[in-house]
Amino acid sequence: MPTSDGPSHFPVFVAPLHAGHQRPAGYVPGRVAPVRLPPPAKAPPPPPVKPHGPAPLQRATFSLSEESRSRERARDLQQRRNTFICVGASTGAFFITLLLVLSLRSGDVFDENCPDHNPSLSSWNPGHQPQRAAVVQRGQLFKLETSATLLSLTIQSGGQVVFADSADGSKNITLRTHHILIQDGAALHIGAPKCRYRSSATIALMGRSDSAALPETPGLGRKFIGVLGGGTLELHGTERVSWTLLTRSVPASGLPTGGYAFQRNFSRGINLRVIDQDTAAVLFSERYDTHDSRNDSRTLTRLLRSLPAGRIVALAVGDSAVKSLLDETKTAIAERLGSSFVYNLKYRQAWALVSEVQGGNATCSEDVREHENHDTRGRALASRTFSTVEGVAFSVTAYSEWKNGGIALAQILAIKSSASGINIKDGHSVSPSGFPISGFQVDAEDQVVLNLQDEVQPTWRPGDQVVLASTDFSMYQAEEFTLLPCLWCSSRQVRIQGKPQFLHVGEVVDGVDMRAEVALLSRNILIYGEMETSCYGKMCRFYGHDTFGGHIKIFGNFSSVHLSHVELRNMGQQSQTGRYPVHFHMCGDVDQRGGYREPTYVDGLSIHHSFSRCLTVHATNGLLVKNTVGYDTLGHCFFLEDGIEQRNTFYHNLGLLTRPGTLLPTDRNESLCTSIRDKVYEGYTPSPSTECKAVSTFWIAHPNNNLISNAAAGSQDAGIWFVFHSSSTGDSHGLVPETRAELTPLGVFYNNRAHSNFKAGLIIDKGVKTTNASAADPREYLCLDNSARFRPHQEADSRLPRVAAVIDALVSYKNNDVGAWIRGGDIIIQNSGFADNGVGLSFASDGSYPSDEGSSQEVAQSLFVGESRNRGTNAGQNKYWGLGGVDAKLRTLPRNRTFPIRGFQIYDGPVRLTRSTFRGFVSTPERFTSAVGFSLKNTWQLTPRNNLSQLSFHPSVSRRVASTSLLVLNMNLVLNRRSLPDRNVFKRRNPVQLTEKNCLGF
Asked: Helix (H, G, I), strand (E, B), or coil: what is residue 624?
């Protein structure tokens, strides 16, 4: 197979699998051949003009020789042929012109870039024939005009199927079939890069894993779109913003300032809330005892007279409010709030009102209930709906009632001391047979506006599905919503149906960008697997639903494959290896090195609710993956498979909610790890912590790949994991002599984000086991292995100079274990931010200290935040909730309440930490917290060449350096003089011994 190793003067090709297909000269993958009209036919010469006057004299005739007669007959025959050719050409030109005129009359302007405008296509309407195995053969060029159902569709060499489109996007074509096979020289087109599909096109892949309707296809199985050597697959939907970021936080209530709820028993008098009509914020809260105090009544009058017009006021009676309620107060309530009932209120009547100041009776909602026998027989309820300046609809509700016999006096007194918020006025007599209740609620209606970084209008449309990523420790706080119409929304706003259950941050918090990703899931080209309503087969022991979805598999030496703005739903097959939503299988070089003038790419795909991975790059080099979303998937999402994949670029992709799978040990969680033993040696029980528990959103099996501006927004284990194969594995085993992965310099790593992962944001460490299970090593093939250490050198040659691996502009926050775990030599992290992780950044050397003095690591110009103002939401599988942060308020916590949070952790070294800032490290009564610390369980040696210099500590850092180890540490420290007392400043090159005692007090 073609590889990226070594110089090459000629593009390398692999012979097609099934035929001798050759690309024609000048072929450009992905480009539709332009349709040109034939040149106009030349008109025949005019007949000679007969002369006027007498006929010329007849000359004497002679008999023609046989040779002369033959020449004359040949000349006549040629003239007749020319005439037929001219007539045929004229007729062809006429019909082509007629075709163009008809297309123009239908409103579809002829465009040579549009595949469905090719006049060579024949209209195809196969109808619904679920038993028909359709075959499109050489020379058959079909335009699918209407929906169809087929047993299968095979497009053979030279055949072509194109989905019809319309200028107004009104077509809706669904093709249902068990599989589509595109063989050598064949093509399937839906739109083109320069003529994007405008209508709705759907391919539904049918079938069960145990279906007898159709035999399995070798190498592809069932329920697939397969592209063999020489095949073409071009799918191009309407171009849309794939994902963006919030620019304003969305609280769990959906309101900009958060929701409000209050309930109280025996809160006598008139209870009042003043709400901002622009933001829904509660501006003022007070109780006026108008039963006992005329002064309270006068104070209420002054307040009502002072409120500006348009302000929202909610009133609710608790117990009784009329004994000392002055007429001037009643007049103010009637005039300013439009009340109709206030003048006739009676003793212990339940009364609630919601209104706008100076809004009149039309804006006033109020209700009164009579008090009889300690009961109001229902609740006085007033509610009005308003809208913030951003268009978020919200309701304001006030209520008041007496309940009869619902609670005993002893129960009421017990409630007083509870955390429910219900309180009792001291000294107030309580009737065991009745008690009053009053309260207020401010809540978003079933619609919320999202403010976004990018202009998504008008490509995001009502009815589309979007997902908001978690900005907390739990990836399960990701939420899906449907877009609603919003005529007044700006180009950077959308309205969603429903309200969030969790806080989604939309700002830079304490210097770290924590804005939630918002992804569009809908596309106008949809490929999905039809699923059973209940689980069946062997996977039911692990999952309670069908996991046999569809899949797309592309084999090597294809002619042209480009996929853009396509939705893939219910794809992937958890029960089978090699069956993924999109799978480039053993394709070699797919860019210019492989002879492709138009490099292969996938762009703007939405892969969601997948049953096995998102996109797999298998023994394929030079692929561009950009603007692609992978959401709610099983197993590694963006997956490099065999450890020899190089030069692939992942640009601006988003992966979130990456769940455990079963295919590989590294996909599995603890339960799956110990229960799947079919490939271990005899009765061996795997160790989850060392062999499994590595499922990652980006699984990068070779360092020579580029990751730029991606987001890993929630995985069961890691967001991004660089793992190092000591040799090629799987189907690639033996194709290259050795991978040299751990010696290969790192590709571009720039501007990536990793958050809400249960283990780590970024891991650079470990390899996989490359031998089968045996008595000597009973572990399963491809389980996680601790042997590899990243040591990049020039040309992947350990004898040549080292090459520093640069991690630039990494943002890592809300990862339960560690923001980044880096093991290896010559690694630089710079311009990065770490916040709200169990440990911000943990560095370990390549494991060779003190024998390998050449390796080193450095962290520069980075920010570490222990606990930020993003306090999270106590829901969505967050396990820990307690006090923390600079404000000492309740918040979600990593690991557990006693886990010592650290910003920068040193494992062995040598490590240099320089020109960096720490903030928000505050200890609590339950735990220590430190800006710089050492590994809690480290028996390895620490080098005296570790160095901290030019560090800045914010006043919110209560402990600068801490060690819970009993080791004696040697370290060079140069700290910022402005942040520490003189006694804590150490000069450079002046080693100081730090014992546990003086470290904890540092």
From this structure: strand
